[in-house]
Structures are given as structure tokens and as C-alpha cells.
Specification:
Elements (H helix, E strand, L loop, with lengths): L3 E9 L4 H15 L3 E8 L7 E9 L11 E6 L2 H7 L3 E10 L11 E6 L1 H9 L5 H13 L4 H11 L5 H19 L1
Parallel strand pairs: 1-4, 4-5, 5-6
Antiparallel strand pairs: 1-3, 2-3
Helix pairs in contact: 1-4, 1-5, 3-4, 3-6, 4-5, 4-6, 5-6
Length: 182
């Protein structure tokens, strides 16, 4: 049986979660040579509506490209946490943005809380990189790709002028998550 790992990035439109999913899929497929599929959906609103990006990573060809029960889920809003928590596998992982999700959803999964938006805004200096902070945190939490593969995929996606900013955001998310897990 091939190892199949499903990850969901969820939150509001405009938070960069589609991009985070695409970057994770690139880290798995292009950098590490695994099989990966990324899909996305948005609510009807362009910004602020529900948004999700799902990535399936496997060591064998992927026969069904949609996530069913995810191994790990990121929720950047309360709406996303409430809406998607019932599709996390038993014993799965749920990472919540501590700044934007006030109530923990109930379920058979392990919850981690991290100040993702706050880290981007106050430590990195740009709230717009919250998705890259989240990406770093999810790589640390799941171990589905190496820290280096995730970083390379991030840097391959951003313009030269923003490489240092995004590298700092990714490292902050990764390191903070590792510290929370110890």
C-alpha cells in the first residue's frame, strides 16, 4: 500500500493559502521527486470568503486527486476551523492561527496553536507573508517534506527582491513550530 499524505490549508480568500499549497506540492514533486497533486476551492467572495488548498503527497502515482480525510489541516480563521475540522483523520493534526481562531473545534485530532499572523506582522514586519510562516510551520509539524525542500520551493516562487523576507518568514514558522512540539 502506497503511503499517501493529505494536507489542507484553509482560511479566508486573500491569505495566500492557495499559494502555500502550490509551494508544498512543488517541494514534494519537483524538489523531492515524490508524487503530488494540489487542488483548491474558494467561496463566492473574492476576498474574505472561505478558501482552501489541498495537497496530496505520495510515493506512488496518485489515483484519486481529491483529499478525503486529511492527515493535517491548517485553519487560519474560525470559519475554516469549524468547517473543515470534521474531515481530519482520527489522530490527525490541526494547526490553528492563535490570533484568528479563538475556539478549538472538537474532534479526535491533536491541536497546535501558533500566532501565525502575529509572527508575520510583528517579527517579520509584513503580514502578507503569513502564508509562508504557515507553510514553514506545516512542514515542521508534518515532516512531509524536508525543511530544505520547503525553503527551496518558497524561494523558487518569489521575486528576487522578496527572497530574504520570505526566507525569514519560512524559517520563523518552521522554528516556532519545532519549539512548540518539543
Amino acid at each position: 500500500m502506497a503511503e499517501r499524505y493529505e494536507v489542507r490549508f484553509s482560511g479566508a480568500g486573500g491569505q495566500g493559502l492557495i499559494t502555500a499549497g502550490i509551494i508544498l506540492a512543488q517541494a514534494a514533486a519537483i524538489v523531492e521527486g515524490k508524487h503530488a497533486v494540489q487542488s483548491q476551492s474558494y467561496g463566492p467572495e473574492a476576498r474574505g470568503g472561505a478558501s482552501k488548498s489541498e495537497v496530496i503527497i505520495s510515493d506512488a502515482p496518485i489515483d484519486y486527486p481529491k483529499a478525503t480525510l486529511v492527515d493535517a489541516c491548517l485553519a487560519m480563521t474560525q470559519v475554516a476551523a469549524d468547517k473543515y475540522s470534521d474531515t481530519i483523520k482520527a489522530g490527525g493534526l490541526l494547526l490553528l492561527d492563535d490570533d484568528l481562531v479563538k475556539e478549538d473545534p472538537k474532534g479526535d485530532f491533536k491541536i497546535y496553536r501558533m500566532p501565525i499572523t502575529n509572527t508575520a506582522k510583528n517579527e517579520i514586519g509584513r503580514e502578507i507573508v503569513a502564508n509562508v510562516v504557515a507553510m514553514g510551520a506545516m512542514v515542521a509539524l508534518t515532516g512531509i517534506v524536508s525543511k530544505e525542500a520547503g525553503e527551496k520551493a518558497v524561494l523558487d516562487r518569489v521575486p528576487e527582491a522578496f527572497k530574504e523576507l520570505n526566507q525569514k518568514a519560512y524559517a520563523a514558522g518552521y522554528d516556532k513550530m519545532k519549539a512548540l512540539m518539543d
